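Hey team,

Filing this mostly as a record. A colleague (T.K.) asked me to run one chain through the structure pipeline before their review meeting, and I want the input and output archived in the tracker in case anyone asks later how it was produced. No errors, nothing strange. Just documentation.

Input sequence:
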Amino acid sequence: MLRHESDMNGYAIHASDGPIGTVRDFLFDDATWMVRWLVVDTGNWLPGREILLPPSAVGQVNHMGHQFNVKLTRQQVKDCPNIDTHLPVSRQHETSLYDYYGWSPYWGDGAHMGLVGYGGGGEIEPPSTELMRREKEIDDAKRSKNDITLRSVKEVNGYHIHANDGEIGHVEDFLVEDSDWSIRYLIVDTTNWWPATRVLISPMSVQTIQWADRLVNLRVDRQTVKESLPYDSLAKIDTVDPANIHKYDNKLRKRRRLSLPVTV
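Output structure:
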């Protein structure tokens, strides 16, 4: 199911033996648009310290209670390598965390994805056909871009969006698929250009992200954006028409295979 990133930001994080903090941010890589880390503020438990947890640590999720349960103890979390989350997180830092917990990194054999009971009891289940397809897309992205960069969702929120023929609005939120932690859509507020309208834009349409200018550049024009999936902020997230989304995603993948300009 698609979830608003803004709704999950602030969720409480509970270890097997008690609370450890709240979600402050999510880090994703800009090659695959997969969430790679949860940034957790430990609050009064470990004052002044923030920690990184991979989505693979998440077991049961209580969306009604706004809580993630992780398959770790408080002591394990307390003893994990101390990383400054306000600085760019290097691959060396990520490796130290995966080594500490004894987990396979996401850039390894693919075991990181699709094998964690995100919405259930944490039991390992065979990956679905959809997850296998996503893994293949991710592998292709890795091969085509070796300089994978971790981005902060909190930072990118509010960035201006530019089509190839001008500005169209700004990033308002993200829709995350809760079965595999992929960012499926950016919610873009286009009210300054196209009044009272929000649209869903696929990350496949993003060409570059410019940190210094707080800018997301698309590889498509304004008209293509105008014809993309509309978004109703007052509607429930599961009312987004699955048939339209499926058709939309298939069109993107087909254009990508043909090496034609990607549409949103």
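Quick notes for T.K.: Confidence is low (pLDDT under 50) at residues 110-127, 142-147, 241-249, 255-264. The helical segments are 5-8, 74-78, 91-101, 129-144, 153-156, 222-226, 242-257.
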